[in-house]
Amino acid sequence: MAEGWDEDGLRAVRGALHTQDGAALLAALHRGPVREVLQLAGDGVAEAAARGLAGAAEMAALFLGALQERGFRGDEKLADRLRTVAGDAAIPLLRPIPVDLEMLTVLLEGDLVESGGRLDLSTGECWPAFANDLEAGPRTEEADDPERWLYVPALGSQAGYRDMELFIDGLGDAALAERLRMAIRGRGAFRRFKEVLGRDARSWRRYHRFCDERQRGRARAWLAEEGYRPRLPVQRL
Predict the structure, then answer these.
(1) Do 210 and 113 fall within a single domain?
(2) What is the sign of the dihedral through the CA atoms of 25, 27, 28 and 29?
(3) How far apart are CA 234 and CA 237, in angstroms?
(4) Domain carrying residue 115
(5) Which ranges in the chain belong to alpha helices (H)?
(6) How far is the C-alpha of 47 from the C-alpha of 66, rounded, in Å?
(7) Helical (H) or strand (E) element with 117
(8) Is the confidence at residue 18, as pLDDT, over 80?
(9) How far is residue 120 from each of residues 13, 49, 50, 94, measured CA to CA in Å?
(10) Disulfide: which of 13, 33, 80, 152 matches 107 by Cβ 3.0-4.6 Å?
(11) Is the pTM value of this prediction over 0.70?
(12) DSSP-based three-state secondary structure for 35
């Protein structure tokens, strides 16, 4: 197995998830370490296992073990989903909605002034707060319907700052880690962190995978607290 994910491998995983091609997803997951794509691909693996695709049960077990070992926020919720598919746990009382966790993260963790918004419970679409002022956005009377819309709060960047700290702590390069610790002190921490890390392409890719997983996990955990869980959109399987 490769030491890390390259762009072609990630593109194959994302493409298989988009088309809900379970066989292609299972094949693509052999192109890199699954511990780096657990939240990204977990729902697709669960769906493949539920359909009884060849190799899906083994991949689900691999995902479950990696989730239990890693323990990011939201990992246990995904682990519960995989246990349910395997018949090892009761079905959680969470309403499935076809939401993109990456888009939900944008609403949850953006700038406190500009983020937040609404989640369309029927389609899974994420609408930022300012969309209400746009012609394409939900009409005011519709946006207040609790059966159709779920309010998404703006939680700010505190969790993102913690992601940087944890990533630095896990770096094997002591010199780079020290430069990054200096970079995140004071105002402008995110900009300086990206400037320093951007000089090391391999570490930059690792950081984005790390952040994407943690952000998706937090979005999954927030959904569960509201009584929902993500599912893949209804497309061809």
Answers:
(1) yes
(2) positive
(3) 8
(4) 95-237
(5) 7-19, 22-28, 38-50, 56-70, 75-86, 101-109, 140-143, 158-169, 174-183, 189-197, 201-226
(6) 18
(7) strand 117-120
(8) yes
(9) 26, 28, 26, 16
(10) 152
(11) yes
(12) helix
Task: Tell me: do 65 and 171 sit in the same domain.
Answer: no
Tokens of 20: 């809900």
Task: List CB contacts of 37: < 8 A, sequence separation 6 or more.
Answer: 5, 10, 13, 29, 209, 213
Q: Cα-Cα-Cα-Cα dihedral of 83, 84, 88, 89, to 10°?
A: 110
Residue at which a domain ends, from 92, 114, 145? 92
174 located within any domain: yes
Residues 126 and 79 occupy one common structural domain: no
Boundary residue ending a domain (92, 124, 155) = 92
Contacts of 207 (CB under 8 A, 6+ apart): 167, 197
pLDDT, tens only, 93-136? 899 999 999 999 999 997 767 678 999 999 999 999 876 655 55
| Residues present in the chain in total | 237
